[in-house]
Amino acid sequence: MPKKDPCKVFACNIQKCLKENNFQESACKQAIEDLRQCCVKWGTASYVCGGININNNPKKNNETQSESETTS
After folding, report:
1. CA 60 centroid distance within chain
2. If you count Cβ atoms within 10 Å of the first and of the last residue's Cβ in the chain, which end, N or C, has fewer?
3. Where is this region: Disordered (predicted)?
4. Rounded to an integer, what is the distance from CA 28 to the centroid of its chain?
5. Exposure of 46 by Cβ count < 10 A (0-12 exposed, 13-18 middle, 19+ buried)?
6. How buried is residue 14: exposed, middle or buried, by Cβ count under 10 Å (0-12/13-18/19+)?
7. In what helix (H) or strand (E) does residue 51 lie, and over which residues does it extend?
């Protein structure tokens, strides 16, 4: 019997959030971050983390992007 994927529930939460919010990614930032944090913890033990960049913190990227937009 296969093991339960420890991050599957977070991936499902993203899909549910996106569907409820007309696929607006910006409305689901917390659900996305929750999955990223699960992938940081479980890494290769979770099948759903295969395409997740755990080294990329979207909060920091958004701050950097906003700063560069205001200085341009």
Report:
1. 14
2. N
3. 53-72
4. 9
5. buried
6. middle
7. none
